[in-house]
User: Fold these one by one.
Assistant:
Number 1:
Amino acid sequence: MTQFYRHRSHTYTNIQLTSLLVLRFLTGWHILYEGTAKALNPQWSSAVFLQESQWLLSGFAEWVVSNPGALAIADFLNTWGLIAIGLGIITGLFFRIAAITGSVLLFIYYLNSPPLIGMEYTLPARGHNLIVDNNLIEAAALFILAVFPTSRIFGFDAFISRKKTKEQTGEFT
């Protein structure tokens, strides 16, 4: 027997909800791990990545690398932004904001170093990519996840939503 989960006008089967939650947790874990790895490595800096920038944001990347204050801010925001985004996605707390912010951040990574013909990078790539890489795929996955309110079914957003509903209707537990 197929069970359905309803939230407002959205209805999900068990397999649909489970699939969305698995994608949410895997993506959140990867982003959280990337941020944590940067935070735990005192040698890490975004300078190496930014120096490789060759496309639309290369001028901005060059400015950030040449300005120590801007680089420090970029490093801080990158590290702690990834951690906050990953935690938000995994826990379902401010999920939609976390998913959209993560999608935008990953798309910015893509715009700095896309796998296009004629662009060579000295940093090792993950496999052999052409046009589509892991940053673009993960950015799209986060955007798609933002469209589905799974955190309103499973996550802290659901708890907050239920608590607000009870307060508005005068129900107290």
Number 2:
Amino acid sequence: MDRLEELKNKYQAALRTIQQRGVVLSHLHVQDNKLFIQGSAPSEGIKNEVWNQIKAADAQYSDLTCDLKVDSSLPQPQAAAAAAGASGGGAGGGRTYTVKSGDTLSKIAKEFYGNANDYNKIFEANKDQLSSPDRINVGQELKIP
């Protein structure tokens, strides 16, 4: 297996997040024996999501160079889900989020609001399906107020 494939396998969760969350890559190749990723993320939260996946694969990420910028003109990946879910309620932005393995309400709040302590906003908006802010399930669709 060549070095590019080896590194893509190692960081496959981060690369999957990049693909699913609308990050636009300008470079993905091996440079100086490291995986070189360069591109633009639609939001700071998505950029942080990619970095969390990178650090989960290798906390030192000594074999990776990642240069992600935030470009708010990129389409937000939540938009399609929001449009689909917005028909029923009268509440705010209509964003939704699908819970992934390892998520907590605090982690999701940090992604969307920049502050983990705002987790209660998400809990309050989802009391119809959550009994406790500590109990969320992979695959759950949460409303993000």
Number 3:
Amino acid sequence: MSHAKTLRRYAAFFRGWCQAFGEHESQSHEADAIRWLIGDDQVGMIVPDRLRKALYKEILGKGQAPELVLYDQSFQVGEVNCECVNDHAWNGLRQLHALSQQARELHLFLTYHIIYPAGTRIITFASKGPLGLFYKEIEPMRMRISVSAVSGE
């Protein structure tokens, strides 16, 4: 049994444009692993260089959107499988699951934050859509969370 939700996806009108992520708690991370950002009504991921291009293509590419599936210790989107290597990563997945349960709608777009190096983009899942000034809506994506993903709660 699983829980499914439609993600409304957004792409920037112009390359590099995006709004700020805002205040958040940063989950510590292993070197070369995903860093999770937990904010009010949003969860973000800063992905390591080795995953960035492939993950961005799957999550925000144009055309047919693949399904995003959250598992117990990993998530998969299209051809990209990301293992969560520690408790902090597991907490990021739990926070994303909780957000998907609480939010009436879930939105997916890129953001930035000034405390991270220039050019760092955050894959953001939020209960509110982004600013229309920066983004246009693209084809939605389906997100599925397996029941086992909540076993640690």
